[in-house]
Each structure stands twice: as C-alpha cells, then as structure tokens.
Amino acid sequence: MLYQQYGVVALLLALVAGLIFSKRSPALWFGGALLLSYLIGWLPLERALQNFANPSLITLLLLLLVSIGIEKSQLVSWLSRGFQGKHLGSVITRLSLSSALMSAFINNTAVVSTLMSSLRHHNHFAASKLLLPLSYSAILGGMLTLIGTSTNLIVNGFVEQSGEPLLGFFDFTLLGALVLTAGIVVLIIGSRWLPDNSKDAGQSTPYYLTAHVRDDSQLIGKTVEQNQLRELQALFLAEIQRGSEHICPVTPDTLIAAGDELRFVGDLEAVSRLQQFPGLELLRQDQQQGELLEAVISYSSRLVGKSLKQLRFRHEYDAVVIAVRRGHERLQGGLGDLILHAGDVLILSIGKHFPGQHQLSQEFIYVNGLAISTPLAKNRSHWVLLGFATALALSIAGIAPLIKSLPLLLLAYVAAGAVTVNEIKNRFPLELWLIVGSAIGLAQLMIETGVAGQIADGLILLVDGSGAYGALIAVFVATWLFTELVTNNAAAALTFPIAFAIAQNLGVDPVPFFMAVAFGASASFISPFGYQTNLMVYSAGNYQLRDYIRLGVPMALVYSSVVLVFLPLIYPF
C-alpha cells in the first residue's frame, strides 16, 4: 500500500503541474490520469466508468443543455430594460441583482454573454463601469442554489460518491445571500474605481479588420478622398499593404491599386458600409460569407502566441477571421501575421463545417452570436420559462428529481422547436463531462489508498491548535489558490477528498468542509484568467490587469471574510 500511495501522490503532482503549466485541455490531464490509474490496476474498469453516470454529473449536463432554450427566451431583454438610469449605484444594484438571480438557475457564462450586449451600449455609463460588476455578480449569484454553478453540482456528485447525504437545493442559499449582499456593496463602491473608457480618444469599439481590393474594383485608380474612404465615420483607414510596400499614414491623395489590402480600425457595426463599395471585400472571392460569431480566446488556448497563418486557421476551423480586437490597443500588420493573445476578440465568418462548442471550449469562450440564433417569440418564451420553472418546483417539492424532469423538458423543447438537435450536439459539454467523471474516480482513489487521509493529517498538523475551524480555513484557502491557478472545477476535484478526510479524521460533520470547497472554488476575482466570465468581459470592457486587482482584491477579501465568519455558524461542526 505504501508504494501505491507514493504512486498516487506522484500521479497527483503530475496532474497539478500539467494543469498549472500546460496549455493542454484539463480534460486531457484528468482523463489521462484516470486511464493510467486503470492501466496500472489501481481502479477497476467498471468503477472507473460508472463515475461518468453519476446522477449529479448527468443533472449538470442536462441543465447546460436545457439552458440553450432559456438563453433564447426573452427573459434577458425583459431584465435588461431595468438597467437604464443616471445613478451608477442604482444601475449597479439592479444589474447585480438581475444577473445574480439569473445565475442562480442558469449557467453564469450564458448570463454574462447575453447581458453584455445591452450593457455595452448603456445610455449613461461606459461599458467599463458595468461589465466587471456583471461578471462578479454572476459568480456570486451562482452560489445561491445547488444548480447555480457547475462547481456546486460537482461537489454534490463527490458527496454522493462518498456515501454522505446529498446537499439540498437551497442549502447554499443563506450563505450565498449574505455573500451576495456584501458583494453588491463592494461593487457599488468599487465601480467608481473602474476606468471610464468612454472618455478615451476614439470612443468607437477598436476592431482591427482588413478589406481586399479586387482586380475589377471601381476604386482602382482613384484617391482615398475620391472613393470617400475618409467618410466612413466609425471606421478609420489606418494603413495600406501593397505587396511588400507598407503605406502608413494614408493621406487623402493616396491612390488605390488592384490587390491592395486596406486596414481599418473602428466600430464593427460600420462594417456594412464597406460592403457598399463595389470590388472591396472583407473576404476573398474564394471565401464564402457565412454567419458571424464573436469569440474570445481563452487563456489556455493553443492559439495564444501564434499567428493565424501558423495555425492554418481557416483550414482548421472552417472559419475566416474578419476582425480582431484587443482592448484599445492599436494593432498593426496583416491579420494573418498578427500574434494572438488571451482575451483577444475575434469576429469569425463561419462555414458549415465549423466545429461544435465541445471541440472549441478550450480555445474560445463564446461571447455572443451575431446572427446565430433568433430569439423566441413572446408566447414561446413564456412556455420555455414556465416549463423550466415547473421542473425546478417539482424537484424542490420532492415530487420529481431534476434527473427525471430535465430529459422530458429537453425533449419538449426540441419538439416545440425551442432547441434543435444540432444545437444539442454542438453545445454538449464533452470536456466538462470527461473532467468531472475522471475527477470522481481520482477522488475515490485518493480516499481508498489513504493519500487523502495523509494529506489531511498534514494540514491538521499545519493548523495545530486551531481545531476544526483552522482546518476549515486551510481547506478554503487551498481551494481558492487552486481556483486561481487552474479552474474552479479542477480545484473542487483536487481538494474535496482532502476536505472529506479532514472531517473524518477530526470526527466532525463534513458539510462545513463541503461548503468550504464549493465557495472556495468560486472565489475567483483578482485575475481575468481565473474564471470564464472574467475573461469574457476583459476585452469588451477594455480592462487592464490592474482593474481586476483594484476591484477584485476587495471583493475577494470581503467574500472570504463573510464565508469564513458565517459558514461555521450556518453549518456547525
């Protein structure tokens, strides 16, 4: 057993190192660790596979698929009407409450992506004042219910596998409400510290895009001024690439030649004006215009640090990048040679073979489709929301668990046309399923081999004299650190077996430790890369890292303080 413990520890260390230092998918590391455990003989095949059918995990997958219909309802537009106002504190309060309540029942990534569009065009306040509070309040709202965030359901899956009583739907609500209330106060005060980027020169959204002059274009032989390329209002002709010649700055007297690549900076909404010029194309003749998608490059994406040409982007994804945005940074050079960064916003013209979300989740975080889905009609929106509310009510009342009602609801959505089979296929969270299923098996391995108990004893010694409360603080802090270094779901997977072992070794109720893992795994506020919603608003709000530190550090301190003060009072040892 001792040698097996050393082997398991080595496997876990390799897993953690891979998650922190590698750009490869966490699903690959978790799946590889589980596979190795089976091949070595530490886990029987049947037990390794049965974890992928864990009821909490299946419920999580069903919720994410059902949320497709919720996202297409008019709920978001109804709520966004209340975001207008001239007093920043009032707007932040309404925004925070709305996004938090939605995140309590819907995936918070979907909440942020759907609310962003209305906030980016607020009548009185810059998007930079609103988008980071939107992300933080969505994170806080996810802690109000069992289904508010994937982490809560994942922790519940671990609880079920350990043989302990399952967590209830509203077990998170009281502590979550206290955290949300304190968080909203921080957001109201802290939003004044955020930059007002609308005061910057060039208030238009600074997308960087190129257009190609065809050989038969009517622009050829005329100057920039004659072609009225100086009168595009929200677009500025920054430079021209003519073969090996680079023309910058572009003067009104510059002649346009066949094959020129015109490079513009400005608002994407003005792109339609370029299409009015005969022979001026955003896409080459051999590139078919498809639906437009706005996507953000994730921190762990293999696209980071490479150019579109190096990646053979069009061939790999059946999509053409027609514009790029990086905050207010002025980009230069051709799109194909541009080195991509995490947080870059790409506007993609996608083809019919564009990969599904499960294939892209490690590369991109979807912000919103620019012609991808049509909102449901008012009556159908009511029906979709009523069906979801009914499924929740049946679960809360103990009549029918979500794992039974959600499949029926999803079938009803498909039958009514609110969700298509193709959308389910493209949105199926394959990586999340692989991560969680593998993590449950690895958690079992840690507990059964005694590795979790050994680590737990070490933590107890580390906080010697502090008792169960000191151990609880250690679990929370460890989970929070893992969340900032890897992902929230991976952090919960790594610390849960240790937290459970600590509770067993101390002979106390394990529920406070389960809650410490859940709340610690969602405490990601001080980095744009620690949580998906933080990265989604990074470029859209033209933020810099110091903006996250300026608002995120007070939020993290208040969040942690409220959790650690009230958690043992609400869930006593």
Structural topology:
Blueprint: H1 2-21, H2 26-40, H3 45-50, H4 55-72, H5 75-80, H6 88-103, H7 108-119, H8 127-141, H9 150-162, H10 173-190, E1 207-213, E2 235-242, E3 245-247, E4 261-266, H11 271-274, E5 280-281, E6 291-297, H12 308-311, H13 313-317, E7 319-325, E8 345-350, H14 357-360, E9 364-369, H15 378-396, H16 402-416, H17 421-427, H18 430-448, H19 451-462, H20 467-485, H21 488-506, H22 511-521, H23 532-540, H24 545-570
Antiparallel strand pairs: 1-4, 1-5, 1-7, 2-3, 2-4, 6-8, 6-9, 7-8
Helix pairs in contact: 1-2, 2-18, 4-9, 4-15, 4-16, 6-7, 6-8, 6-10, 7-8, 7-23, 8-10, 8-23, 9-18, 9-21, 9-22, 10-24, 15-16, 18-21, 19-21, 20-21, 20-22, 21-22, 22-24
**Number of distinct helices:** 24
Instruction: Categorize the overall geometry.
Output: globular
Structural class: alpha+beta
Distance between termini? 32 Å
Q: Which ranges are low-confidence, i.e. pLDDT below 50, for 5 or more consecutive residues?
A: 284-289
Characterize the biggest β-sheet.
9 strands, antiparallel
Beta-strand residue percentage:
5-15%
Number of strands: 9
Radius of gyration: 25 Å
Helix amount, in percent? 40-55%
Mean of residue pLDDT values: 81
Pfam families: CitMHS, TrkA_C
Domain RCK C-terminal: 196-280, 281-348
Subcellular location: Membrane
Organism: Rheinheimera muenzenbergensis
Main traits of this protein?
transmembrane helix; 9% strand; alpha+beta; 573 residues; globular; 9 strands; 9-stranded antiparallel β-sheet; single chain
